[in-house]
Amino acid sequence: MSNGTASTGTATGQLESPSLADVQAAAARIEPYIHHTPIMRCSAIDEIVGASVHFKCENLQKVGAFKFRGACNTVLSLSEKEIENGIATHSSGNHGAAVALAARLRGTTAVVVMPSNTSAVKQAAVAHYGARIVHCEPNDESRRRTLEAIIAEEGRTLVHPFDDVRVIAGQGTAALEFLEQVPDLDIIMTPVGGGGLLSGTATVVAALSPKTRVIGAEPAGADDTYQSFRAGHIIPVGVPDTIADGLRTTVGELTFPIIARHVSDIVRVSEEAIVEAMRLTWQRTKLIVEASAAVPLAALLEGTVDVRDARVGIIISGGNVDLDALPW
Amino acid sequence: MSNGTASTGTATGQLESPSLADVQAAAARIEPYIHHTPIMRCSAIDEIVGASVHFKCENLQKVGAFKFRGACNTVLSLSEKEIENGIATHSSGNHGAAVALAARLRGTTAVVVMPSNTSAVKQAAVAHYGARIVHCEPNDESRRRTLEAIIAEEGRTLVHPFDDVRVIAGQGTAALEFLEQVPDLDIIMTPVGGGGLLSGTATVVAALSPKTRVIGAEPAGADDTYQSFRAGHIIPVGVPDTIADGLRTTVGELTFPIIARHVSDIVRVSEEAIVEAMRLTWQRTKLIVEASAAVPLAALLEGTVDVRDARVGIIISGGNVDLDALPW
């Protein structure tokens, strides 16, 4: 699928990547619309993992996920002509709600292609923000074809979930805030699905706090980024098998090179650890985090990352959960 | 039961009540140990209730409830002689954990009498902070006798859950912070069980923001304060029937006169509205609130309080929930 920018590469074959200045410009652009999300600490979790953990609460962001940063930056960056016939995307969750809200704020319309098996809660969120939902079969091929047909028929502009420099720059604004709030972190961790949040975070941290290690955490049941990181090229995810529904995607063509260059490591976690970390966060911090958001803490619980006595930052990616289908 | 202070009345028969200065002194005393809890807003909830609602998040307080403020103030106020043999209380939940932590911080021991049917989660919290749990039968008579026996045998000092001026002053510190954070509220609401939080809040608001109306919200299935407020004297709760397990107590002898004097109204809510408000808060704010904490919002959902276009403050009293036994 096209990434929705004018060009995904330059004449020299170099793929586009956002600069720190792009992230700073994104932060200024989305400033009136986003929440500056708080940092939470929890002494009980610190004791359990043996580190000082700082949670950046993007579950408290508009639409309940960091996704609004990237969607908002992208939609605000579009020309009048590009929004004339509205925008479109595909999503089984948070990106769809983010695009729907961004479209409403920009005064245009949005279509979100959603797999027919998407949870009612997530469909309701997209509908709540006024987007039109078009169902597709629950597979990548049907998603892509359904979206392409809508774009062709209706002349809408694609807002990609991650593989777009404007989306990556928008996601990077969470790390920009985080470093201002907690300047001297040894490690920053994010979950990784398509890689928008991780690549945006890595861009900012490499420029502003190069001593801070950036680590991506991925479910073992969807470990394409882990495999790709070690192989040096993208290895698609195959059939993902994880409760972390936001992380079932293969890492992107634009996000992967940024990750390969600026990220210290990608670690994998078990499904059991994801559920344990999710439940521990609910119980101890009183914050609702979705399974995908619990993946970095799961890595700490499993001891996969050496964080002894370290100052660790974790970006809590989202908090949209079907309260009728909890994994315990 | 004795209220644990040296005297519950004066020579003139006037019951003790804390002054604003007592609350301010409590705030200074507990300052090193408590969290200054944040205010949360939620545009979706504002739309639903037609008001600007500010949530003071005492679910993010130490031990997950406002109760730590009062317990901490009381335990820090005790003389060396009073803590020599440790302290004791009875509780089916948050007050027990609060006393346990306060005892640990003061370097003394605590015994918490808990009904034998108390949930494992709440017992675990008390044990986590190092208190000894003594079980009793699940009725007021057994609670009182078991606690009296321990105090008599072990020479411990009682820390009452609510009917103690030091406890009331400590609970009032939440409102002190709240008014600093959001100065111009039209209404402040709290749930009401024994009345410690409501009477402490009313004390502060009457002194610092007399135009702000203080309203207590109570489950219809445990409406002793509602009845008492209208009768002008305490009418015991009878057999409470509510999911809001923190609010099953009868209002206290010290808390009731403060409530009668400074509170604008007590309103009642249905069990259905409590569950709806609890779930709505989880879904929309991503904050875990316990059933008792959802009672004020339940009153707004039922339209029992006229809040049209008002600036409303709600103290979210706690967030300790058994995640294996959700009410939906």
Q: Could you characterize what this model shows?
A:
2 copies of one chain form a homodimer. With 328 residues, chain A is an alpha/beta fold. Chain A has 2 domains: 199 residues, Rossmann fold; 91 residues, 3-Layer(aba) Sandwich (Rossmann fold), CATH 3.40.50.1100. Chain A is 42% helix and 15% strand. The first copy, chain A, has 13 helices and 10 strands. Chain A has a 6-stranded mixed β-sheet, with helices on both faces. In chain A, strands 5-4-3-6 form a 4-stranded parallel β-sheet, sandwiched between helices. In chain A, helix 5 links the parallel strand 3 and strand 4. In chain A, helix 3 runs parallel beside helix 5 and helix 3 packs across helix 8. The longest helix of chain A has 17 residues. Chain A is globular and about 55 Å long. In chain A, 58% of the residues are buried. Chains A and B meet through helix 12 of A and helix 12 of B.
What do the pLDDT scores of chain A average to?
A: 94
**Uncertain segments of chain A of ≥5 residues (pLDDT<50)?**
1-11
Structural class of chain A: alpha/beta
Number of H- or I-type helical stretches of chain A: 13
Largest sheet of chain A: 6 strands, mixed
Q: What would you call the quaternary organization?
A: homodimer
Instruction: Give the C-alpha Rg of chain A.
Output: 18 Å
Provide the CATH top-level class of the largest domain in chain A.
Alpha Beta
Q: Judging by the overall fold, what is the CATH architecture of the largest domain in chain A?
A: 3-Layer(aba) Sandwich
